[in-house]
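Hi Prof. W.,

I finally got the Arginase family protein prediction working! I wasn't sure whether to trim anything, so I left the full sequence exactly as given:
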Amino acid sequence: MNKLQDNLLTTLKSCLCPPGDGVYTVNTAKERKQKLQKTIFPGAENVDTAWKQSLETLPESDNAVMLGIASDCGGGILRGASWGPLFLRATLHEQGSRLNYFDMGDVRVNPHLLHDKYLNDPTISNCRNAFYQDDSAKYPVSPLSLTELVAEDFYAAYPNKGLFGIGGDHSISYPLTKAYLKAKQQQGKKVAIIHFDAHTDLLVERLGIDLCFGSWCTHILKYLHNPAHLIQIGIRSSGKPKSHWEGEFGVTQHWAKEVQELGVEQIISTILRQLDNDNIDELYVSFDIDAIDSSFVSATGTPEPDGLTPDEAMDILKALAAKYPITGADMMEIAPFTDTSGEGITSSQQTLAVGADLSAFLLTKMSEN
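And this is what came out:
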């Protein structure tokens, strides 16, 4: 390992925990966590030891690297997306798909915190003592801050690998995409963010908080070569028209009703033409599961009707991946215990199945790159 890789390894062992352990609980879902960890680390007597040993093999791993961020503190409607990383991982393994990716583990989440900039010094000191047994430790303590540190160190050490983040609420995409965009700038790459969502996430702030599930897109625009390279697909729940968002922020939007009225092939053609005209090199896909119609995915914090079908979303992803390398991605807002459909466990399983299919495709394409 070189110096940057050694630095990353130290950061990972301090700031992450084994896959599934990102949600801080005592007994809740204990059996599910143990089942997942036995699948990932078969025969291991001590999961923490086996996980840390696995981190040593990161240099030889596939290009797609999974990172769980089990935080829903940046949400604000129905909570529960903190369980997304555990349940989505389990679904991927239960499907038996032969996927090539490296599971780096989970960010250590304090469920009461969002970003260190919102904390005073005594709180940071107390949390560092709880996390690191050292109130003067150099590491941050909040999910967004920890994710940004890990992602920045990751891309510095492995510029040719890509992170696949599992959330968590959509605020998590802020540090993931920020670190990604800064790394690609240094590499001289021109990239676009393909953002699937029912909502624009283009608030400047929400109730005084500038980094949350409804505002993260606003704050990554400055890291793009052009704000039009934030391409949003599936929008349908907004108090303002498309013309406002495109005119005010300069982003590109393809609302769900356009997909329905024009057909998915025409939308694909329009997106590909833009990417070609703008000489885009690589893509990052940020996927909020509520981009999919609520009849397919109701286990999420803000389910919305009249959305994309899973097939439409997959058709778009396949067409993009056929032309451009997908070098970073995330899957957000799957909340397995939060289901407003009234169908209970069946609907939750359906949401996870859709999320797993899309995630498996993204992981596969990232590994190929």
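The chain has one domain: 3-368. Does that look reasonable to you?

Thanks,
D.
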